[in-house]
Amino acid sequence: MAEWIGINKRARRCYGFDEIALVPGMTTINPAEVDTYFEIGGKKYRVPIIAAAMDGVVDVRFAIEMGRLGGLAVLNLDGIQTRYDKPDEILDEIAKADTKKATELVQGVYLEPIKEKLISKRIIEIKNKKSPAIVSCIPANAEKFGKIAQEAGVDIFIVQSTVTTARHLSREYKALDLAKFCKTMKMPVIIGNCVTYEVTLELLDTGCSGMLVGIGPGAACTTRGVLGIGVPQVSATVDAAAARDFYYKRTGKYIPIITDGGMRIGGEICKAFASGADAVMVGSAFAKAKEAPGRGYHWGMATSHVNLPRGTRIYVGTSGTLEEIVFGPAKTDDGSQNLMGALTTSMGCLGVKNIKEMHDVEIIIAPSIQTEGKIFQAVQRVGMGK
Fold first, then answer.
1. Domain 15-385: what homologous superfamily?
2. Quick one: a GO biological-process term for this protein (predicted)?
């Protein structure tokens, strides 16, 4: 697979969503009759498209509405919702900030200490409305926040960092023992992020209930520019899915993988499932919802880093309600609304009955898939030319 790029150095070719296409099979199925449910921790969820743990995307109100629609929205325990009693005031300030000063402002906002009482409060607020409470934090805070969240009745806990491995080395501080943490917690634990077969396989051995796949593909993330690391999401998902399948054959335990980031529209979400994802996690698509707390803005989770920001504030606008984005009816022509309609229609055209069958559809390398026959859309900046 690898090619020589110079003396004694080889590199393998990896692929992103714009470079592949899905090929229809021998049969087609009524989209209304396909099964989109995904399972994690013994529970099934109707919508396999998860809202990312970003402060411009998910707050308590958003999480409640997403739960009503049959999906999951992740609340960031390291963010504004747990630092401020009145987060709306801070969100207004960020939305109104000058573009040149936005990152500096965000850095200052996140210097406010996290209030542990707000962790319980936010989870309880979500649970009181009968919606699932899913939260996320960095490894350094996982043990402390995990206990608080567990007592508050959280449904799923996510331990998330830019790059996660099962063997983190440090002399400065004690690294989180992921296997011990997963064993201690009484709720499903999802960990991430990773992009390779070997690391995925080692992380699956920790006892986690799910894996996040993706480094740097998010619309507001600048990790790939700042650090120069990352793997395009199609290849990263294919490799992680291969590790999941090998682990299942070896142990009999099927642990879902979640492609995290890099998907703006329905077609890209469908390609992620075809690459092997059991669910996907998106940010910018949901940041456009009227219910999103970012007022049409969202920012990368590492934007607030005091020394080396690896994210930026971007404007995506507000295009419709969360229900319109998830289930339609779509009022846009670019695939950014009715994401579930796009998924079920794609599954019907591909002739697959469920998400696992989606993993077996034919994928072709098709660099012209975004441009072939689309000159008028590109020139007029409509549809796929936006």
1. Aldolase class I (3.20.20.70)
2. GTP biosynthetic process
- Mention every residue, 6+ apart, whose C-beta is less than 8 A from residue 217: 16, 224, 230, 232, 233, 260, 261, 262
301: pLDDT strictly greater than 80: no
Q: Which two tokens stand for residue 186?
A: 């009484």
Kindly indicate the confidence band of residue 8, based on its pLDDT and cuts at 50, 70 and 90: very high
Distance of alpha carbon 369 from the chain centroid: 24
CA pair distance 19, 371, nearest whole angstrom = 11
- Amino acid in the structure at residue 144: K
pTM for the full model? 0.94
| 307 upstream amide cis, omega within 30 of 0 | no
Beta strand extents in 41-86 (DSSP E only): 43-45, 49-51, 74-76
User: Which is more confidently placed, 166 or 159?
Assistant: 159
Confidence of residue 179 (pLDDT cuts 50, 70, 90): very high
